[in-house]
Amino acid sequence: MASVIDESQSLRGNVLFHPAFVTPHTVPVFLRSAALRVAAGTLLMAGVFAAIVALAVNGPNDDRLSCALASATCLVAFYHYSKLISIRDQSAPRIKLSKPGDVPMGQPSQLKWSWQELEVDAVRYSDWMVTLGALTIDLHILNGQHTRLFPVAWSVVLCGLMVACGAFTRLGTDELVPPTPSTDVTKTSDGWVRILGVVSFVVGVACLFLVLFNLLDGLDDPSNGWVFAFSIPWVGYGVIALIGITWRQIQPDGYSEGLSIMKDLSYALLDIWSKAVFAYFIGVKALGFESLVFGLV
C-alpha cells in the first residue's frame, strides 16, 4: 500500500512558495544579506588594493597618505558591513524574526522588525562617524588642499556633528514617529523630543552644506571634476534619511519592509561609490593610470 506523502514535507515546486516557508517578510533573508555581501566584498577589494598601492608607490607623500586613508576607510566600512550581514542573516541580533517553519512566538513580528532596523541603523551611524572624517581629508588632498571658509580640521569636526545629529533623529526619535502616550506628561515630553529631532536633522543638513561648500566653492578642480563626482553624492544620504522620515509619518506602524529594502540598497550603492570606487580612483591615480581606468572620453 502506497504511503501518503504529507504535502508539508514535499519538496516539489519552488521552495520559496512552499507552505513551510513562513516568514513575517516577503523578501527572503538570504537575498537581503546577499545585497550587503556585494557591498562588503567591493569595499574589501578596494581597501586591499589601496593599501597595496600605498605601500608600493614611490610617488609624492600626498599620494601615499591619500591611498592609506582610502584603504582605512574601506576596511572600516567592510567591518561594519560584516555586522550588517550578520544582522540580516539573523545570526547576531538580540531579537530574531521567525524563520521558515518556525512557530511564531514571543513579541509580534512588527516589533522585532523595528528593533532589527534600529540595530542596523546604529551600525550605519557608527560606520559614518569613523569614516566620513577620513573621506573629507582625502577629498581635500584630491582637490589640492583647497578650502573656502575654514581649515580641513573644522570640516572633520562638522562631519562628526552631522553624523551625531542624524543619529539622534533616527535612533533617538525613531525617525520622529509619534508613540501612543498614556499620559499628558508623556505626550508633552514626546513633543519636545520630536521638535529636537527636527532641529537636529536641520543642523545635520547645515553641517553637510558647510563641509561641501568649504570643499567645492571656488575650486579649480585639478582632478577634472572627480572631487565633485565623489562628494556631491553625499547629499543622497540626507535624501534617503528624509525619505525615511516622510515614509514613517505616512506608515508609522512597525517598520515597512519596502523602506528597509530601499535603505539597504540605496546606502549600499552610495557607500560603494563614495568609498570603494573612490579608493580605486585614488589608487590608479597614484599609479598614473586614472585616464586609462576612469577616462570617460
Tell me about this structure.
There is one protein chain. By secondary structure, this protein is mainly alpha-helical. It has one domain (about 20-295): Rhodopsin 7-helix transmembrane proteins (Rhopdopsin 7-helix transmembrane proteins), CATH 1.20.1070.10. It has helices at about 30-55, 60-90, 110-140, 150-170, 185-215, 225-230, 235-250, 255-285, 290-295. It starts with about 30 loop residues before the first helix and ends with a helix. Mean pLDDT is about 85; it is low at about 1-5 and about 180-185.
Per-chain topology:
Layout: H1 29-56, H2 61-89, H3 109-142, H4 152-172, H5 184-216, H6 226-231, H7 235-250, H8 257-287, H9 290-294
Helicity, in percent? 55-70%
First-residue to last-residue Cα separation: 74 Å
Task: Label the overall shape.
Answer: globular
The first-level CATH class name: Mainly Alpha
- Which range does the strand content fall in? under 5%
Short summary of the structure?
By secondary structure, the protein is an all-alpha fold. Helix content is 68%, strand content 0%.
Which key phrases capture this entry?
Rhopdopsin 7-helix transmembrane proteins, 68% helix
